[in-house]
Amino acid sequence: MKKSIVKKVFATALCTDKVLKRYMNIFTYNKYIRIKYEGGQLDTPTAKAVAKAMKTWALKNGVTHYTHWFAPLTGKTAEKQVSFIDIDHKGKLIEEFSAKSLIKGEADASSFPNGGERMTFEARGYSVWDYTSPAFIKENGAGNKVLYIPTAFCSYNGTALDEKTPLLRSIEALNKESVRVLKHLGMTDVKNVVCNIGGEQEYFLIKYEDFERRLDLKVTNRTLLGAKPTRSQEYYSHYFGIIDDKISEIMNKVDIELWKLGIMAKLQHNEVAPSQFELVPIFAPANISSDQNQLIMETITKVAKHYGYAALFHEKPFNYVNGSGKHINWSLSTDTGINLIDSNIENRDVFLTFFTAMIAGIDRYYKLIRCSTAHRGNDLRLGGDEAPPTLISVFVGENIEEMLNKLNDNSKRKKSILDMGVNCLPKTSKDFCDRNRTSPFAYTTNKFEFRMVGSSQTISWPITCINTIMANVLKEIADKLDEATDPKTEIKNIIKSNIEKHKRIIFNGNGYDKSWHEEAARRGLVEYRNSIDCFDILKEKDIVDLFDNTKILDASELTLRKSTYEKSYFETIKVEAKTLVELVLKNVIPNINKYIIELDTTSKSAKDSRIEIKNLLIDSLNKLSKLSTDLLALIDKLGKNNFDKELLNTSTKTMEDIRKVYDSIELYIPESTKPFPSYNDMLF
Ligand code: ADP
Ligand code: MG
Predict the structure, then answer these.
(1) Distance 459 CA to ligand 2 centre (A)
(2) How far does the centroid of ligand 1 lie from the alpha carbon of residue 69, in Å?
(3) Quick one: 249 and 286 in the same domain?
(4) Do strands 441-443 and 394-395 pair parallel, antiparallel, or not at all (unpaired)?
(5) What is residue 339's DSSP assignment?
(6) Is residue 643 in some structural domain?
(7) How many domains does the chain have?
(8) Residue 275 Cβ < 6 Å to ligand 1
(9) Residue 345 in domain
(10) 19 with 120, same domain?
(11) pLDDT in tens, 391-427
């Protein structure tokens, strides 16, 4: 029988356990698997055997190089390719990949964001193999095949300089504390609790030729200028609309490439804004999911380019239409197959323990949750156009709220039925709760969905923050249960107290409503509107203690993150401002001038024609000249600003003013002297 495409390609580029088993001695392989899934340190002979198996498999697949693949705090991934070529002690050419090369790589850490932690003269950094995320083969456009080994990146002193290290620490802490709690709740057979993440990725696709003609898109990934398109999303016709053939070609190719890497690309559809799309893979353990998300963005970018499109992951590439986000679906499952976040699980106390632990955690540390999404692009997106507001709350839905209000009611929940009033349409059961598009953190029957994360951000940091908060709350619960004489009663008290103390964070209504923001203020919830208000949160005592208690980041590692995120925020605005100046001076003004001269020439040559026509031309000419002068004055003002922290607001305000002036001019400029493709050109 012929194999289906999925079965033919799935995981063919992934170094799975099955692949390793094929090339390893069974005893060594079993030892490796035991360490991988039950924990512990890998010894050198085992690592040697794994390295040999990886190399054999890679060479068979035409691979010439390997690389340690890591995620420094740049938001992007990093790699340094090394070929397998070597010579043995007799001087003979060999292809070599030692245990040492697999386990540890060395790189200059001073050129990566390090918050001043590493000077160039003491710059050593290490990449250390993370065997919980499988290695894979990537083929680039030039046909080169490279073996990618996921690694964590730290300094010479072991300071985490990347996204992965704290994520892995948070996963381990969460596992440990969850198992401790579950023991007291009678689930003594559970050895491991895994954090699962399903990340939904939104993005835009526009024609590459349009992208290339816009300096702002090329440099900053967003349009700094551009008049409102004549149509945007008022008909709601793009969302789930018929997928264009060309886009479908890209989506299908992306899926195939992702399947090869063992990524279960599952859903693809048109999103709300014109030219906006979404890809959703099936959830996976957090660490793997986070690596996969990087590969998803990279694959979409590459495939789109191949087909003549540019993929945009910026949170707000276009004003006036919806921006893009990345929803993180979060749950916890046991190695015995139970989703602890599922409201349907038999042991309601287990569900309520974990559920209310999350409520308590988010309420106590909502500022950290907000801070985990602080990012220039997100500032432009949050708070409107279906993106969550910057005010944190948790949506739980009416049914769960009722459950929380009636803790002693253990009656089985009735399923509600969806009846559409037509006999030929089957009656089906409804979900336990509705959706809420304006909630930053929503419970959705068997998982929490964090909807605030920006589309270009790495998901590791927000997940790390959620995990850290949860691990800390669970640790406190486990400590209390350790002390309790009657854990069964104690857990009921804990659940009750978590609801009573922390229910202020629950909000099921419209997150945009002014009345909610007033109510939240009464509840003592602070809204951090801009990213710039968020970075200092990482220095606050309760947050430093939180990361310290759970041993996920020490104070210096947190400071490093704070300064890195903050710096990147300022740099982004600086680059935007510089790009805007260049765009206006080199593109906009010359084109407007060209048109002004055209108008001038026409008006002069029209000296014999009717005075009304002449006046009309002069009128347009004056209008454009005035706008052009205004633009130049604003550009001058922006250029003079040295982008100090204090002047930041003035800069961003001036950038907005420039945009306003340009956007109103754009409508007067004819096709022939248009400086670059308009929104209408790019989006439709
Ligand atoms: P939505 O309800 O937001 O339209 P889906 O139901 O398609 O989205 O799910 C979105 C993502 O959530 C997918 O990646 C899916 O695999 C993931 N997901 C589903 N169940 C879980 C779970 N228990 N834990 C984590 N992620 C999950
Ligand atoms: Mg969703």
Answers:
(1) 15
(2) 27
(3) yes
(4) parallel
(5) B
(6) yes
(7) 4
(8) no
(9) yes
(10) yes
(11) 999 999 988 888 888 877 766 666 677 777 777 777 7
